Amino acid sequence: MATRDSKINNDSENIMLEKLIQQTELTHFWSQHIEPSPYSSLQNPALSEELMQRAVNAVTQWPGYTPTDIHALTPVAKACGVRAVFYKDESARFGLGSFKALGGAFAILDWAASTLTEQLGKPVSIESVRSGEYKEQMKNLTVATATDGNHGRSVAWGAQLAGCPCEIFIHRDVSVGREQAMAEFGANVTRIDGDYDESVRVCATQSANNDWQIISDTSWPGYNAIPRAVMAGYTVMVEEMASQMDTSPTHVIVQAGVGGLAAGVMSAWWKTLGENAPKFIVVESDRAACIYQSLDANAVTAVRIAEETVMAGLSCGEVSELAWPVLQQGVTAAVCIADDLVPLAMQCFANAQVTDKAIEAGECAVPGVIALAGIMKNEKLRQQCGLDETSVVQIFGCEGATDRAVYDELLAQPT
Ligand SMILES: Cc1ncc(COP(=O)(O)O)c(C=O)c1O
Q1: Which residues line ligand 1 (CB under 6 A)?
Q2: Residue 88, domain extent
Q3: Which residue from 36, 306, 285, 310 is spatially nearest to 149, judged by alpha carbons?
Q4: Terminus of the chain with fewer CB atoms < 10 Å: N or C?
Q5: For position 156, which CATH number holds?
Q6: Is the domain of 387 the same as that of 337?
């Protein structure tokens, strides 16, 4: 610990960052040795190279498309003792505030194009659906989802992009702000008098009765085409990063809920860099650590969420069936972090501590920095991860202030 602490940046301007690094400890961690291998050697890959390319081709044609920023977090790299840290900032993605905009919307358009291809007996492209060529037919294809946040906004926006009706089911505790955000995209939002699981059940029943297509970001036995497309949409971020970074990452730290984001970005980096792919590290809230538990048990393991994490997008108790084989074969380390570091980490971003300008980083955007600091303070794990002063680390700023009230409250919290 002493050697690591001595690397902490002593610049008094970065006092909050110093404090964060000093306070950070991982609550749990697990690691394994991964032999470098080509993407083609992966068993049960969730994503084909063709699907990833299709997603990139489609998304980059949407109106308003522009690659999101990547920031070099030089003070973090210096303080942690690595060569560089690159932060992919998704707070401005299509004006929706998170990377989720890529997944749900691509899945809807891809599904609509293949459904119309079948119905009309002629090839229908994603772009022709998006540009409104089939707007009459699209009025008869309805999509639905149960959600408590970012995914619902992405589905509502995607349905608007595709021109199809959208039914969203939210539970009794979803904030009015989030409800309005989905309704603004033209979705019909139904609030049910029950919890999240009840909203999933109501959505499933109504969808079966009305022939609506469920758009979920997680997969289960018999349901994987849509979540596969959702994951493919996320790979656009890697395509962008590969050209934004002047050097390839040696390590990628990615936060996880059901693991779709992690498996998606892993697949894309693995496809892009093959045997030179970075080492992948997954970070979860210790209140919802289904991937850590599954890797540790070497079998899919569901966890019961006793207390909600403040990182709402990571609050998932079951790993996605599609993501699991990718995670199992590709993750070098899985680490868990405590909620109480999140406000301070967000404040570091907001107060220009992690780079020379302020960055709007929501609750789910900060686990990468926390995980890196925690690993660097744990000598054994640091070595197992092969992290040192030559490492180039890539992390994900998954969201900006997707719920302004929560964001403001966390920024104001004494730390
Ligand atoms: C902002 C944010 N970050 C990360 C995640 C985690 O993604 P996944 O559930 O695919 O692991 C989510 C999921 O909703 C999210 O909303």
Answers
A1: 98, 100, 150-151, 217, 255-262, 313-314, 316, 364, 398-399
A2: 2-98+231-412
A3: 310
A4: N
A5: 3.40.50.1100
A6: yes
